[in-house]
Write a structure and sequence with these properties.
Blueprint: H1 2-18, E1 23-28, E2 33-39, E3 42-44, E4 51-54, E5 59-64, E6 67-73, E7 79-83, H2 94-115
Antiparallel strand pairs: 1-2, 2-5, 3-4, 5-6, 6-7
């Protein structure tokens, strides 16, 4: 019985720690809608225009009006992209690139806002 209780506690701690670093940003001006969600460690390139790494099990999601971008990292750290519910791919198409740039710009703006 004691072992079962310890196992349940360990599973509970693990389950809650997996989503500890989840973040969400939503911006709307009445005409356009931008929602960004990410979990795990997300690293952008120096220009802050694209995701270069996501910790294993992490993800990055961006929705701009009707366009959607999902990026996930496999256990080896390789990124996989899905744009507008198309098939998953190892490369990012121009629509996905534009969404990623917009999301990166908004994340940088929000971080700067918090520092002020």
């Amino acid at each position: 019985m004691k072992k079962a209780v310890l196992t349940l506690i360990a599973v509970g701690i693990f389950a809650t720690s997996c989503y500890r670093s989840h973040s969400s940003i939503t911006v709307s001006d009445g005409h356009s809608y931008l929602k960004i969600e990410y979990a795990g460690t997300v690293v952008f390139n120096d220009e802050k225009t694209r995701v270069v790494r996501i910790s294993p099990g992490g993800y990055f999601k961006c929705t701009n009006n009707n366009d959607k971008l999902n990026i996930e990292s496999d256990r080896d750290g390789k990124l996989h992209y899905e744009v507008n519910s198309d098939d998953w791919s190892n490369t990012l198409n121009p629509t996905g690139q534009a969404l990623m740039k917009q999301a990166a710009k908004e994340i940088a703006r929000q971080h700067e806002k918090r520092r002020s």
